[in-house]
Design goal:
about 100 residues; Glutaredoxin; two-stranded antiparallel ribbon; about 10% strand; alpha+beta; globular
């Protein structure tokens, strides 16, 4: 899932529908996109508050495209920085899917 946010250098100033249309066409995104949220500060969305507490005890998110790996059981497993390409975490994803299938 993707959670658009405009808190990082104003990269997502458009409304949620416009952001979705743009990323689907420009970046070929095919995963679900949620409404725009805050991922830092006092208005942090509860999903991000939870993910950060479980993975790294509340560490700040410094830039867009931070990724969290969540197991099929709903456990937060790992956090990846914005410089990590999604294709590079495929083995981690596969490992957790394999565990879920056992």
């Amino acid at each position: 899932m993707g959670f658009p946010c405009n808190q990082f250098a104003g990269q997502e100033p458009k409304d949620s529908e416009e952001v979705e249309a743009c990323v689907r066409v420009k970046h070929n995104v095919n995963f679900p996109l949620m409404e725009k949220v805050h991922v830092t500060g006092p208005k942090t969305h509860p999903v991000y508050r939870f993910l950060r507490m479980v993975v790294d005890e509340g560490g700040a998110i410094g830039w867009n495209f931070c990724m969290f790996l969540v197991s099929p059981a709903g456990d937060t497993v790992m956090r990846y920085g914005a410089s990590k390409m999604p294709s590079t975490i495929a083995s981690d994803i596969d490992a957790h899917l394999d565990q879920a299938g056992q």
